[in-house]
Amino acid sequence: MSTPTTPSKTTAAFYLQAGIAFAVSFVGTLLGIAYLPIDAWQRGFLGMSLLFLVTSTFTLAKVIRDQQEASTVRVRVDEARLEKLIAEHDPFKAAA
């Protein structure tokens, strides 16, 4: 039986690039909203929409990551072992 390969780790450079890209796009959008020629309540609505979009994006990314991790072979093997232990356990058998 072959051992499953571990997923590749994210490099520090890619992590930094993703963080910088997020910060630049977020600040750019905030500045764009701030300088729009609209009323304050419209500007506030756009700002709240932006914040909701960002938080829902993080939530979606976490859900997708969790789903991917749950489908890995290692997790399924661990679940099968646990189910086997539970099935073999007899709670009425006296401890030796």
TrEMBL record:
Record field: transmembrane: 12-38, 44-64
Cellular-component GO terms for this entry: plasma membrane
InterPro entries: YiaA-like, YiaAB
Pfam families registered for this protein in UniProt: YiaAB
Domain YiaAB two helix: 14-66
Transmembrane listed as a keyword: yes
UniProt protein name: YiaAB two helix domain-containing protein
